[in-house]
Structures are given as C-alpha cells and as structure tokens.
C-alpha cells in the first residue's frame, strides 16, 4: 500500500509537470513556471516535480521501507534467530516509529531471547505500545509473561484480567489465572 501511495504521488506530479510543459509551449505568455527553465528546457521541471513528490511523500517511502525490514525480521524471528531479528525490528522502528507491529515483535523477540538485561527494554517497548494501542489484546498476554519473569505476579494477573475484558474467549488467559 505504501508503494502504491508513492507510485500514485510520483505519477501525479510527473503528469502535472508534463501538462505544465505542454501548456507552456501552447500558451507561453499565460503559464508561469518556476525558475526551472534552464536553456529553454522545460523537461527539467518534470524530474523536479518527481523529486518533490518523493520528498513530499517520504512518509509513504519510510513506511514501505519499515514494512520490508519488518518482513525480514519476522522471517528471522520465526526461525528463532533473535540476534538477527532484533536489529531489523529496531531499524524498522527508526524508519517508522509508529509501526505497532515492529514495536510488538521487537518486544516479543527480546522476551523470547531470554536475556535478563533485555527485560527492561521489553517493558519500555510494551509500555510505549500500550499507550499507542491500549486495546491490543495480545500485548496484555506478553506483558503478563514479562511481569511473571520479573516476579510481579499481581501485575501479571491484572494484565490477564485486562485481556479477558477485551477478549472474553481467549482461553490461555483463563488458564494462566487458574494456575
């Protein structure tokens, strides 16, 4: 979808430049072009418009790059290559800080890697995610598992209760509360 956004914006700006070029040839006294007319070359204006589209629509380009990094990270994460996946998730977040999936899966990969020093980072990412998407159902389960690892069982139980409020049919939360 982000690639389509970029393509459509670039195409729009290209054809706008093309029409401006054609109009300037037919009605040279009525069309005012920006000072891109170098040595009577109106075609210089079209690439400038394309570059403008790319910079104007750079959010779509960043989202596209972030989703590509996310896909690569998911492949590594699914193969339990967390040391390879984590830098890719971090790069995806640098490209698009609002990428909820990248933030969630970064926290999950850090949690699954199992290093004690990662737990602080996991809590930071999950807290940020819970502020951005408080109704993210699976996040409550991961937060509960994090709190269990940290020895905060009361907080873990609260997270599972929150998850049940959001999704009353999520069986693992009931099973965890029954333990």
Fold and architecture overview:
Helices cover 75% and strands 0% of the residues. The longest helix is centred in the N-terminal third of the chain and has 25 residues, at 2-26. It is built from 9 helices and no strands. It has 179 residues and is mainly alpha-helical. Helix 1 runs antiparallel to helix 2 (45-56).
Query: What's the tally of helices?
Result: 9
Largest beta-sheet characterization: none
Task: Please estimate the helix content.
Answer: over 70%
| C-alpha termini separation | 44 Å
Oligomer: single chain
Order of helices and strands: HHHHHHHHH
Derived from helix and strand composition plus strand pairing, the structural class reads mainly alpha
pLDDT averaged residue by residue:
76
What form results from the Cα inertia axes? globular
Strand content: under 5%
If you compute it from the alpha carbons, what radius of gyration comes out, rounded to the nearest whole angstrom?
25 Å
Q: Tell me the number of strands.
A: 0
Report low-confidence residues grouped into runs of 5 or more: 26-40
Topology:
Elements: H1 2-26, H2 45-56, H3 58-78, H4 82-95, H5 100-113, H6 119-132, H7 137-149, H8 153-166, H9 171-178
Helix pairs in contact: 1-2, 1-3, 3-4, 3-5, 4-5, 5-6, 6-7, 7-8, 8-9
Give a summary of the structure in a few sentences.
The chain is mainly alpha-helical. The chain is built from nine helices and no strands.
């Amino acid at each position: 979808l982000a690639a389509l956004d970029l393509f459509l914006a670039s195409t729009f700006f290209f054809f706008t430049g093309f029409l401006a070029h054609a109009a300037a040839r037919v009605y040279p006294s009525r069309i005012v072009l920006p000072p891109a007319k170098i040595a009577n070359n109106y075609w210089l204006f079209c690439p400038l418009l394309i570059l403008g589209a790319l910079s104007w629509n750079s959010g779509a380009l960043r989202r596209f790059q972030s989703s590509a990094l996310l896909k690569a990270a998911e492949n590594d994460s699914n193969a339990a290559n967390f040391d390879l996946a984590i830098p890719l998730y971090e790069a995806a977040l640098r490209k698009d800080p609002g990428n909820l999936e990248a933030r969630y899966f970064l926290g999950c990969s850090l949690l699954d890697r199992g290093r004690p020093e990662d737990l602080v980072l996991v809590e930071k990412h999950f807290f940020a995610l819970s502020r951005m998407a408080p109704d993210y159902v699976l996040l409550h389960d991961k937060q509960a598992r994090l709190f269990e690892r940290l020895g905060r069982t009361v907080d873990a139980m609260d997270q599972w209760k929150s998850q049940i409020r959001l999704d009353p049919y999520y069986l693992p939360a009931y099973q965890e509360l029954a333990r």
